[in-house]
Amino acid sequence: MSHSTAELEALLMQRSLSDPQLQEAAEAAADYRILPDATVLKIGGQSVIDRGRSAVYPLVDEIAAARKAHKMLIGTGAGTRARHLYSIAAGLNLPAGVLSQLGSSVADQNAVMLGQLLAKYGISVVSGAGLSAVPLSLSEVNAVVFSGMPPYKLWMRPAAEGVIPPYRTDAGCFLMAESFGCKQMIFVKDENGLYTANPKTAKNPTFIPKISVDEMKAKGLHDSILEFPVLDLLKAARHVREVQVINGLVPGNLTRALAGEHVGTIITAS
Fold it and tell me: Is 265 helix (H, G, I), strand (E, B) or coil?
């Protein structure tokens, strides 16, 4: 069912924004892909950056080489320092919105450090998703670094229980990929992907190469590798209908994943 702009405008002027017919007309409008040739990479905070030089330097080299063939939006996680901040702030009974701002500060620091290491390649850090600077950086050097925390700050939607911000850097990076209509979303972590149990603590867990959101929830794995809200964002997405989680500590994995290879766990919307 197609709607003309005039029909949509008439509905917008006459109806509540939650009106079903208006929602349907708006849904029918075509969605423009802003950066369809770009890939969003999420570089884990605790899983990669907190490990320091041994983990980060090889990835920097791989990113520098990969930009000859791929356009990359590189988001940073927050990691261990954010967890420390969350524990103190939660102990002080501060709300999720304040914890969100604290987590943002750590993701920002990680973006600055990664940006300094990539500076000699002309790859810069943009703030606040840097929408005005991203297209220029991508067209000139094929890559840009951003802080992965979504900018909800005090407007962070509280979790059903507890005060830890539910939308953190996994969600922030995914939302960038979806909003820009990017071709793929790759989460760079320190595990080969998803297992039937935590591979750091469980004995002989089984590796899962591909799985849907519904299957993850049915198996109780929905909170095991990505932030839980990312799975619902993935199901609601128009452009990015699958994501891949890879082990960035294995040399060459990032390059292969950028080329479209299946090297980790692929999580699909349906």
Answer: strand
Neighbours of 29 (CB within 10 A): 11
DSSP letter assigned to residue 37: T
d(Cα 145, Cα 121) in Å, to the nearest integer? 12
Q: How far apart are CA 110 and CA 259, in angstroms?
A: 26
Question: Beta strand 71-76 with 38-43: parallel, antiparallel or unpaired?
Answer: parallel
Radius of gyration in angstroms for the set of CA atoms belonging to the chain, rounded to a whole number: 19
**Please, is 158 exposed, middle or buried when counting C-beta atoms within 10 Å of its C-beta (0-12, 13-18, 19+)?**
middle
Question: With contact defined as beta carbons under 8 Å apart, do 190 and 47 qualify?
Answer: yes
HSE toward the beta carbon, residue 146, CA cutoff 13 A: 30
Interval 3-62: pLDDT, tens: 578 888 888 899 999 999 988 888 888 889 999 999 999 999 999 999 999 999 999 999
Judging by DSSP bridges, how do beta strands 265-268 and 242-247 pair with one another? antiparallel
Rounded CA-CA distance 240/242 in Å is: 6
Tokens for 129? 């998703």
Is residue 144 within 8 A of residue 135, CB to CB? The reply is no
Burial of residue 189, with CB atoms counted within 10 A of its CB: 0-12 exposed, 13-18 middle, 19 or more buried: buried
Q: Are strands 265-268 and 143-147 parallel, antiparallel or unpaired?
A: unpaired
pTM of the predicted model as reported, rounded to 2 decimal places: 0.95
CA angle 256, 56, 81 (to 5 degrees): 125
Q: Do the beta carbons of residue 255 and residue 261 sit within 8 Å?
A: no
DSSP H/E element including 5: helix 5-14
Q: How far apart are CA 214 and CA 55, in angstroms?
A: 33
Q: Would you state the pLDDT for residue 222?
A: 83
Residue 200 main-chain phi, psi, to 5 deg: -80, -25
